[in-house]
Each structure stands twice: as structure tokens, then as C-alpha cells.
Write a sequence for this structure.
């Protein structure tokens, strides 16, 4: 195993190792001081063989450069998987020369946060828009819904204000309205049978999504102070409030 | 993969934040760079200082290195410029201009000067290493000796050596490795034994 690795080291020193193996061995070299020492000796053997006169066969230059480089800025984003804690020294770097790695790390953290903030903002805008739509709808609702329907209390605790409705029945108990009262039907209420629709929505609410259910209910909600809240009993409601002959 | 590509792997690691990869490049080329600088300055210690400065300059410029040329070629230019700047700042002339190397006496004097390491310890170690390497080479089997000499002295690639020795490239790789291993084994004994063995050997 070591012989194969040492053979690879020799080939890498000569630039004769395949790329992938070279990358892997380079990674290993950064972690293995013994292997680096062997690398140095290979360089020394070459220098000795070439009889480089005046050249001292030791690692003094490398050692001095290494200690100086330890005080220099580290490049990149630190993605090189190194075990260079032995050579990397914590240094104070001038503010202007702070490496891009710090900024990149900050951006990596800030991007999802910014995305979540934008999403939350859009959601909030949607809610406000929906509420504004709710306030704009009563004209149609008051015309369309001929009967009063008692609905299950909503958790929002809001009181629906109608422009053309005389008042809003807001039977508040514990701060929340316990029911909403639909206005009396107008003479032109022939768009749809609202009571049937309301009952349909209530009966099938468990199958509908919360947003669509809310939208449908908001369309039906109206108030009429003269109206006594009716029960869900459809025929009784219709007989008392509108006298419509086509009760289901 | 060529030497250039092999060095480029290390350069890219440095650019990604691996300082140890730069140390490997320095270890590989320090002797060549010092030898190069010695063409401009006489004193080996001064040559080492300049080589050191050149390597630091190279490290600082490494983010701009794109691999258009080989790392050593690039390093070579930096070392020469550093040596020239050093001479200019000290108002000296390169050794090539103020010495007559055709004169045997003066040439011998230069050679002697260049062989003088700055410390007795450095001199002892260098000489010891040289002796060991040369004796280890002589002791190698002929095919290993030929392979390592063609590689280190003649700078041939494995493919060229394979052609010259009429053997597969894999065999060349194995022979060069085994030659280095044999020499390295002797060197390790020296480093583990430390200094002071020189006199005994001599």
C-alpha cells in the first residue's frame, strides 16, 4: 500500500501521474507531513544528482517561506479540504484585504433569509389584499344572499362591515363573534340560491381548502339588523325570512 | 499529465486556500531557484534571501496566475526580476558582468566561492547529502541508475525514457521510483541520525 503510494508520489513529482490520482495525492500530501518530507528528499536527490554547486541541500528556504506564508492572507473560500492547521496561522488582516471568503460565507447565510423575508412580505400583502377584497364585496353579497345563515364562529374575530347594510350583528362573546347574519334578500335576488350555496359550502367545508372556503363564506356573509339569525334549517329560514317558494 | 499540469493541481489548491500546497511547490523548486539566483549574486546566503523574497512575491501574485505558462517558468521570471531589483537597489552589477569566467584562476575562485555554504553545519549537511546520493546511485542496478539519470540529469519524460530503454512506461515509472526509494532510504538514515556523522563518514 505504502509502496504504491510512494510510487505515485515519485510519478507526481515527475508530472507523470494521471490527473485524478494527482488530485487525490495532493490532498493526501497536505495532511501527511511524512509524505511531504519524502517529497522534499526527492527534490534534494535531484539537486544532488545535478551537482547544483552553491546550492545548499536543505529545506531552509522552504522553511522560511512557509513561516512567512503562514502570515499571509489565505486565498479562496477555504474549500480546499486541507488539514493545514499546523501551518495556517491566525493573523490579523487589514480591513481592505479581507478575503472574499468572509463575504461569500455571509452571502450564503443571507440569501435564504432574504428569500424567506420576501416570501413573508408577499404573503402579508396577499392577506391585506384579500381583506380589502372582502370589504369591497358586500354590495354583491347583499344582493345575492336572501337569507340569514348562522355560520360557525370564525377564528379571525373580525366584524364584517357592509356599506349598504344598516348594521352588523356582532354578537360578541369572549371577544369573538359567535355568528354572522346575512341580510334579507332583495327583490332582484335571482342570481343563485344563497342559502343552498351556504349550506353546501358548510356541508362540504371539510373537502375544500381553507382559502377557497374562506373566500366562499366571505362572499355569503352579510348583515341585516332586522334579521333574526336563523338556524341552519333551510325550510324554516326561507319561510320566515323570505317566503321563497322554492325551498329545497 | 505533464509537470506543468501536476504543478497546476497544486497551484489551484493554493488558490482555494491550501497554503501547504504552496509549501510543496517551494520544496520542489527551491534548489533550482537558488541556483538561478546564484547567476546574479555571489553569496549563497544572499541568493537564499532573494529566492525567499521571490517565493513570497509569487505567493502574493498567485491569485492572478491562470496557468497560461508553467508554474516554474512563471516562478523563474519572478526570481530573475527579484534578483535584478535586488542588485539595482544595492547598486551592484550581476556576476556575469564583473567576472571573466574565461580566466581559469578567476573561474576557479568563483566556483570555490559558490561552493561555500554560509554555515559549517550547512556545508557539512550538503556535502553529506551529496556523498550519500552519489554513493547510492553507484550502488544501484544498471537499469535503475539509467532510468533515474535520464530523468533527473537529462530531464526526459517517462515516455522518452521508455523509448530509450525499450521497455514499457510502467516499468520506467517503477524503476525511477525504486531508484529514488533506495537513495531515500540512505538519506532517511542521515536525517534520523542528525548532524555529526559527517566526520565519521569522511
Amino acid at each position: 500500500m505504502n509502496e504504491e503510494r510512494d510510487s505515485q508520489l515519485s510519478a507526481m513529482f515527475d508530472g507523470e501521474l494521471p490527473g485524478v490520482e494527482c488530485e487525490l495525492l495532493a490532498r493526501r500530501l497536505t495532511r501527511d507531513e511524512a509524505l511531504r518530507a519524502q517529497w522534499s528528499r526527492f527534490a534534494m536527490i535531484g539537486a544532488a544528482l545535478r551537482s547544483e554547486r552553491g546550492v545548499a541541500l536543505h529545506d531552509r528556504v522552504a522553511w522560511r517561506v512557509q513561516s512567512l506564508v503562514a502570515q499571509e492572507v489565505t486565498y479562496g473560500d477555504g474549500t480546499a479540504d486541507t488539514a493545514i492547521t499546523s501551518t495556517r496561522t491566525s493573523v490579523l488582516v487589514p480591513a481592505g484585504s479581507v478575503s472574499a471568503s468572509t463575504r461569500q460565507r455571509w452571502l450564503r447565510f443571507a440569501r435564504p433569509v432574504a428569500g424567506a423575508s420576501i416570501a413573508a412580505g408577499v404573503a402579508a400583502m396577499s392577506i391585506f389584499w384579500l381583506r380589502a377584497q372582502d370589504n369591497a364585496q358586500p354590495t354583491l353579497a347583499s344582493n345575492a344572499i336572501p337569507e340569514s345563515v348562522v355560520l360557525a364562529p370564525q377564528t379571525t374575530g373580525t366584524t364584517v362591515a357592509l356599506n349598504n347594510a344598516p348594521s352588523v350583528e356582532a354578537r360578541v362573546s369572549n371577544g369573538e363573534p359567535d355568528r354572522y347574519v346575512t341580510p334579507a334578500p332583495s327583490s332582484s335576488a335571482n342570481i343563485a340560491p344563497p342559502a343552498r350555496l351556504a349550506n353546501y359550502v358548510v356541508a362540504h367545508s371539510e373537502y375544500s381548502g381553507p382559502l377557497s372556503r374562506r373566500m366562499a363564506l366571505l362572499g355569503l356573509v352579510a348583515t341585516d339588523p332586522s334579521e333574526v339569525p336563523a338556524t341552519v334549517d333551510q325550510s324554516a329560514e326561507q319561510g320566515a325570512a323570505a317566503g321563497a317558494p322554492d325551498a329545497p | 499529465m505533464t509537470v506543468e499540469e501536476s504543478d497546476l493541481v497544486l497551484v489551484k489548491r493554493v488558490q482555494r486556500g491550501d497554503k501547504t500546497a504552496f509549501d510543496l511547490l517551494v520544496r520542489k523548486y527551491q534548489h533550482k531557484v537558488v541556483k538561478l539566483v546564484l547567476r546574479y549574486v555571489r553569496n549563497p546566503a544572499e541568493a537564499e534571501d532573494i529566492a525567499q523574497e521571490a517565493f513570497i512575491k509569487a505567493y502574493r501574485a498567485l491569485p492572478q496566475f491562470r496557468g497560461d505558462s508553467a508554474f516554474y517558468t512563471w516562478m523563474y521570471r519572478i526570481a530573475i526580476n527579484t534578483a535584478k531589483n535586488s542588485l539595482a537597489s544595492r547598486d551592484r552589477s550581476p556576476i556575469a558582468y564583473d567576472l571573466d569566467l574565461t580566466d581559469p584562476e578567476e573561474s576557479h575562485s568563483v566556483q570555490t566561492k559558490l561552493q561555500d555554504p554560509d554555515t559549517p553545519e550547512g556545508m557539512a549537511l550538503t556535502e553529506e547529502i551529496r556523498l550519500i546520493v552519489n554513493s547510492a546511485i553507484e550502488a544501484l542496478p544498471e537499469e535503475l541508475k539509467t532510468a533515474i539519470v535520464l530523468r533527473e540529469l537529462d530531464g526526459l519524460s517517462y515516455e522518452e525514457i521508455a523509448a530509450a530503454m525499450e521497455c514499457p512506461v510502467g516499468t520506467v515509472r517503477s524503476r525511477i521510483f525504486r531508484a529514488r526509494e533506495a537513495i531515500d532510504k540512505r538519506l532517511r538514515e542521515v536525517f534520523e541520525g542528525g548532524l555529526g556523522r559527517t566526520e565519521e563518514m569522511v
Summary: The CA atoms of residues 136 and 185 of chain B lie 9 Å apart. Chain B touches chain A through 77 residues (CB under 8 Å). Residues 169-193 of chain B form the longest helix (25 residues).
